[in-house]
Write a structure and sequence with these properties.
It contains eleven helices and ten strands. With about 325 residues, the chain is an alpha/beta fold. It has two domains: about 160 residues, D-Maltodextrin-Binding Protein, domain 2, CATH 3.40.190; about 110 residues, D-Maltodextrin-Binding Protein, domain 2, CATH 3.40.190.10. The longest helix is centred in the N-terminal third of the chain and has 37 residues. The chain is globular.
Length: about 325
């Protein structure tokens, strides 16, 4: 007996087949998309990368970033360009990165300066913590120094002088929001002196900070290692201490703040790389791995040292944690709400 399929059953079978084909097509599309994503992850980078440096050429951020890009050009085989866009308290250059496509090809030469932006500008056009950190790669410490003929011989003498007469105590400043100013505020806070009673003397660069101290125009000069080393080596200024926990190799006789009993004077001008909000995780992972490998390259380490910097690797999580604490310190030291 031949069994016949009724029209209703035939319709049901047809609908079931269509449903199955729809599901199968969806699975194929998902697999294709996944494979495409994996392939794109494996291929990054495949074209030039622009790293926006929101400070001028020849400064610490610029020089340290160029050491990194020199390594990356060889490592990745694609151009990694440093594009300087200084001015406006680093806001215009930073804003360009925040607004860029989050594909890992427009990035920010990030630094301590980014954390200090809230101290200079209240209503920012972006949330500074929305950027995606790719890692830190280097840093410079801040050196505290005086004129070579100054009666201030030690850091203890310096503290006593600032406490004795803060109204006439002069020190170098980069306009209120530079790495030197961060170190200065940490210093005055640590010794119990109101910075508003002291007298900052404006400088345009770290080298000028050293020149002001060398000329006897300030009681205290503060500048990054790279900027202060020539004046120190030339005997024009006397270094008293260096920020942080460890001594600088080229200034082995200069004690670190932690050694002197001032562990809160930690200001370091670090430099790293950040991307726009929503930068893909695979881009972050590639940068983290590459920067970590770069720290093991003797040529890179030597180049950092030649410009007064040191390798200072932090991965994404460590960088973000560092920046969060740094911004909290900025708000506290500048009295911001």
């Amino acid at each position: 007996m031949v069994q016949t399929i009724q029209p209703e059953e035939e319709g049901n079978m047809k609908r079931e087949n269509e449903k199955f084909l729809t599901i199968l097509l969806g699975v194929v599309l998902l697999c294709t998309a996944w494979l495409g994503e994996v392939q794109s992850q494996e291929k990054y980078p495949t074209r030039p990368i622009d790293i926006i440096c929101p400070t001028g050429a020849g400064g610490g951020n610029d020089l340290q970033t160029r050491v990194m890009t020199g390594y990356l050009n060889k490592k990745w085989g694609v151009p990694v360009n440093v594009i300087n866009k200084p001015g406006g308290n680093s806001i215009p250059g930073s804003l360009e990165v925040y607004a860029a496509k989050p594909d890992g090809y427009t990035l920010l030469a990030d630094s301590l300066n980014t954390s200090l932006i809230p101290a200079a500008v209240k209503n920012l056009p972006f949330n500074i913590m929305d950027r995606v950190h790719l890692g830190m790669h280097s840093a410079v410490q801040q050196v505290f120094f005086v004129h070579s003929a100054s009666p201030i011989k030690t850091f203890k003498d310096l503290v006593a002088e600032a406490q004795r007469d803060p109204d006439s105590f002069t020190f170098t400043s980069m306009g209120g929001t530079g790495g030197q100013d961060f170190a200065a505020r940490q210093f005055f806070k640590a010794i119990g002196v109101d910075i508003l009673k002291t007298k900052p003397v404006m400088a345009q660069s770290g080298a000028q900070c050293a020149a002001l101290a060398a000329g006897g125009h300030v009681k205290l000069g503060i500048s990054a290692t790279a900027s202060s080393l020539p004046a120190i080596k030339g005997g024009m200024v006397r270094p008293l201490a260096i920020s942080g926990e460890k001594r600088w190799p080229d200034l082995e006789d200069v004690p670190a703040m932690a050694e002197l009993g001032y562990p809160t004077i930690t200001a370091m001008t670090w430099v790293g790389v950040s991307g726009p909000p929503n930068t893909p995780s695979h881009v972050v992972e590639i940068w983290e791995k590459t920067l970590q490998e770069m720290m093991q390259d003797p040529e890179v380490v030597g180049k950092y040292r030649n410009i007064g910097a040191m390798p200072y690797y932090h991965n994404q999580r460590e960088t973000r944690e560092h920046v969060v604490k740094e911004i909290e310190a900025v708000y506290r030291l500048w009295g911001l709400k």
